[in-house]
Design a protein that fits this description.
Layout lengths: L5 H4 L4 E4 L12 H6 L2 H14 L7 H6 L1 E9 L10 E7 L4 E7 L1 E4 L4 E4 L4 E7 L11 E6 H10 L9 H21 L7 E7 L8 E6 L4 E7 L6 H5 L3 E7 L4 E2 L12 E2 H13 L2 E7 L8
């Protein structure tokens, strides 16, 4: 995947404020060094900027003149042979908690090695102010003016899959739509269908697609890089489909916080990333069992 803005982001001036600096604490493990890497942190911020942050969220940051990151490694109990690493990135000024994972394990029954080259975003959640303290975190600060400049310059830069991955995604999209219609005992539409694919982020193994005819927003996600054939050959792919007419609400309080729904704000952002900044793709639907093209 070509990432034209990756090198430019490394020019942003970050100032690590290592937790426990000047104390007798042991050296930080390699996971923490990766989690405080300035280029990677900026990519995480760029991802959040594209998918979660609104104009009103930046007011406090602009006033302070700095963007604050607080990061720490998480060490959950893992199965034998699982060497995955986990971490947490807090953006306290945005009240966002980002869980990340660097997968490193084997699926014996499939003889597949699941491994990432770096930490990837697993989830992004809001938290109440004061819910997270500073204990156990390493703080990293960046100059807001420089970040704002970089975000502005890279706001429309995109990265899309090559032809081979695009073909795999067409098949996955076709299968997902077919299963949805089958569950509703309806016949899926035939012929060429138009869909729009959002740009890929280097720190998230996910792809967002808007299927125009069916008014459906679909998210594909995996533990490993979507370019890895094992994702598609062994079905290590999580798929979530949202029908705009049935699964979009103003607030998740309406549906008891159910993750089967998305808010109107989330839907609007997904549509912007797919339709405005995304790539138009076509899928041809045919008889059941026929491969799309």
């Amino acid at each position: 995947m070509k990432l034209p803005y990756l090198l430019a982001l490394a020019l942003v001036g970050f100032m690590p404020l290592g937790a426990g600096a000047g104390t007798n604490e042991p050296p930080k493990v390699s996971a923490l060094r990766e989690l405080t890497n300035e280029t990677w942190l900026f990519e995480v911020l760029h991802y959040v900027y594209d998918w979660y942050v609104d104009e009103r969220d930046t007011a406090a940051v602009a006033k302070s003149g700095q963007v604050i990151f607080r990061v720490r490694e998480l060490k959950p109990k893992l199965d034998e042979g699982d060497h995955s690493q986990f971490g947490e990135v807090l953006l306290p000024q945005f009240s966002l908690c980002i869980k990340v994972k660097n997968a490193d394990y084997t699926v014996p029954e499939l003889d597949v090695k699941i491994k990432n080259d770096e930490f990837k975003v697993v989830s992004v959640e809001s938290f109440e102010r004061g819910e997270h303290g500073r204990k156990g975190f390493t703080e990293v600060r960046a100059e807001y003016a420089k970040i704002r400049e970089r975000l502005f310059k890279t706001r429309n830069q995109t990265s899309f899959p090559d032809d081979k991955l695009l073909d795999r995604m067409r098949v996955a999209l076709w299968e997902e739509i077919g299963e949805d219609y089958e569950d509703r005992h309806e016949k899926p539409p035939q012929g060429v269908q138009t869909a729009y694919l959002a740009s890929f982020s280097p720190v998230a193994n996910e792809a967002w697609v808007f299927w125009e005819t069916g008014r459906m927003i679909i998210r594909f996600a995996s533990d490993i890089d979507l370019h890895n054939p094992a994702v598609w050959e062994h079905e290590k792919l999580a798929v979530t489909a949202y029908h705009i007419d049935r699964h979009v609400v103003v607030t998740l309080d309406e549906v008891g916080g159910s993750n089967e729904f998305m808010t109107r704000n989330e839907a609007g952002r997904a549509l912007f990333n797919c339709l405005v900044l995304g790539k138009k793709v076509e899928v041809r639907f045919g008889a059941p069992g026929a491969a799309p093209r």
